[in-house]
Design a protein that fits this description.
Blueprint lengths: L6 H11 L6 E5 L6 H12 L3 H6 E7 L8 H8 E3 L3 H9 L10 E3 L1 H8 L5 H12 L2 E7 L17 H15 L3 E7 L2 H8 L8 E5 L5 H10 L4 H11 L3 H9 L3 H20 L3 H11 L11 H9 L3 E4 L4 E4 L2 H11 L3
Parallel strand pairs: 1-6, 1-7, 2-5, 3-4, 5-6
Antiparallel strand pairs: 8-9
Helix pairs in contact: 1-2, 10-11, 12-13, 13-16, 14-16
Length: 336
């Protein structure tokens, strides 16, 4: 996906990363709002500064597309075999485009000790970071994928809880490393936000879609007239990946119709025969803040999971996931 300037967000994140680590940072927002692209761009720009390269190591874990079903799978994500020629070859040929990416390389004997829990994995990582004499920046993309993993293979010790204890130690206690968790799962954010044990140890930063003015400016910069740009934004808002589809299409009006039809079909299938869900959407269309809805909130959660609505637990609001969803819902429900 093409990266368009987000000067306000970049400035905030750069300033944050160059301060003393003191909290876990959650970067959250609607799916495909550009969270990953934004943070990558920030780190790439910071990496142009010698001071940053000398003072920071970046550890980046993208959990999308990775099958994780056990604690051992997680260890294989954290640690790389220092003796593996295949991994060295892959590292040379393939990367995520971020300079200065670090890894936790361990000898096979050490890895076996970690798997047998003779060596504490988190303490080992902590000491590795400290021994380099640099601050760390540890990034987890979609960490919620680990929420059903347990350290003992049972239900006694959830891995995520232990991870957060480790993150608090790295940030709030030792100030060794920033920890950034990126996610579009706002129920996961809500769970963390309401966890009293994490009080005063976490910060939250919303990366939303572009506002209408910014979206119009981007389309104009890509060659659209002012009237065409306004027409498009009125129908799709500022969703980066949808804007990219429109820009790349040879016939933007046809592309808009196709996107609208796809969205309408998806919502229709989701609410077919479900008067309870239809009522929730009518409330959303009327402007009611569904975050504070007491009766039927489980239906709100269902619509959020279907990505028709988006819930912001920090801003305490529920809104349509995209403008396409809102327009399609209006038409399907006959709301003016």
């Amino acid at each position: 996906m093409k990266f368009w300037d987000r000067e306000k967000e970049k400035k905030w994140l750069k300033r944050y990363l160059l301060t003393e680590p003191n909290a876990i940072l959650f970067v959250y927002g609607p799916k495909s709002s550009g969270k990953t692209a934004l943070l990558m761009e920030v780190i790439k720009e910071l990496a142009d500064q010698d001071e940053f390269l000398k003072g920071y190591d970046v550890y980046w874990y993208d959990l999308r597309g990775i099958v994780v079903s056990s604690y051992e799978d997680v260890l294989n994500i954290f640690f790389e075999d220092a003796e593996s020629e295949a991994l060295k070859e892959v590292e040379r040929e393939f990367g995520i485009g971020i300079p200065n990416v670090a890894t936790f390389r361990v000898k096979r004997k050490v890895m076996e000790e970690i798997k047998r829990k003779e060596v504490d994995a988190f303490r080992y990582m902590e000491r590795k970071i400290a021994s380099k004499g640099k601050k760390g920046i540890i990034v987890f993309d979609e960490l919620q994928k680990l929420k059903d993993i347990y350290l003992n293979g049972g239900s006694q010790r959830p891995l995520v809880k232990e991870l957060f204890n480790f993150f608090v130690r790295l940030t709030k206690v030792l100030h060794l490393s920033h920890v950034i968790v990126m996610t579009s799962d706002t129920f996961f954010i809500e769970q963390v936000y309401t966890d009293s044990t994490l009080k005063n140890t976490t910060r939250f930063y919303l990366v939303d879609f572009f506002d209408d003015e910014t979206a119009r400016d981007i389309l104009i910069s890509e060659g659209f007239t002012e009237s065409d740009a306004s027409y498009i934004v009125d129908r799709i808002g500022g969703v980066p990946w949808i804007m990219e589809e429109i820009i790349e299409s040879k016939d933007y009006e046809k592309a808009l119709v196709e996107l609208h039809n796809q969205t309408s079909s998806r919502i229709f299938e989701s609410i077919r025969g479900r008067e309870d869900l239809k009522n929730i959407l009518r409330k959303a269309l009327s402007g009611e803040n569904l975050y504070y809805l007491e009766e039927g909130y489980d239906k709100v959660e269902e619509l959020v999971e279907k990505e028709i609505l988006f819930m912001d637990p920090i801003g305490r609001e529920v809104k349509f996931h995209t403008r396409l969803d809102e327009i399609a819902a209006k038409e399907l429900l006959g709301v003016e």
